[in-house]
Amino acid sequence: MNNSLKNFIQASFPNTDSKHPIQTEFLSVGELVQVSEGDFLIDINEEMTYVPIVTDGVLKVTREDEDGHELFLYYLEYGETCTISMMYQESAVRVTAEEDTWVYKVPIGSINDWMSRFPEWRDFLMKAYKVRFDGLLQAIDELAFKKMDERLINYLNKLKAIKESNELNVSHSEIALSLNTSREVISRLLKQLEKLGKVELGRNKVILK
C-alpha cells in the first residue's frame, strides 16, 4: 500500500483500526493513480464517477467561462478532496496536477453508501466541505474586494507554500491565466514588485524575496 495512502487513512479515521469496515472497504473499492504535472485529472463537463483524494502532491482547481477564460479557485493538497465533484453528475470545474500527484479515486456509489453507514466517513466529508467552502469564500473575497496586485501577491505566496520554495518556475502567461487577467497586466505588476525589491524576475521564473 502506498505510504501516503496509509497515512491518510490513519489520520482521517483515527478511532478505527485496520479491520474496521470503513478502512477495509475504502482500500478495496478505490484506485490509486498518478497524474503527471500539467495533466488534467478532471475536465469541465466530464462525467463524475468518482471523487479524488490527494495522497501526495498538489492539484489546481479552476473554473472557465463561456469565452474560455480560466479562473483559479483553490489548490488541493495532501488529504484533501474536491467536494464540488460530489455535487454534480458532470464536473463544473477543471482539476489539473500542479506537480506529479498521487490521487485515490473513490467511486461515487461507495461514498453515498458510506454516508449512511459510517459516522467516521460523514465526519470526514463535513470537514472536507468546510475546507472547500472556506476556500471558495476566500476566492470570492479576493475577486470582490482585492485589487489585482494583492491577488497576485497572494497567488505567489500560495505557490511558495505549495512548492516549499521561494523560486517559482511559472510564466507571466500562466499567472495571468490563473488570475483571469492579461499577461501584460501581470508583467507590469511583477516589474513593479521587482522595483520594490519584493521579487526577482527571470525567464519563466519568479523568485520571492
Automatic annotation (TrEMBL):
GO terms for biological process, alphabetical: regulation of DNA-templated transcription
Keyword Nucleotide-binding: no
GO molecular function: DNA binding
Record lineage: Bacteria, Pseudomonadati, Bacteroidota, Cytophagia, Cytophagales
Keyword terms of this UniProt record: DNA-binding, Transcription, Transcription regulation
Protein name: Crp/Fnr family transcriptional regulator
Keyword Cell cycle: no
InterPro entries tied to this protein: cNMP-bd_dom, cNMP-bd_dom_sf, HTH_CRP, RmlC-like_jellyroll, WH-like_DNA-bd_sf, WH_DNA-bd_sf
Species of origin: Flammeovirga pectinis
Signal peptide: none
Domain HTH crp-type: 146-209
Pfam family, one: cNMP_binding
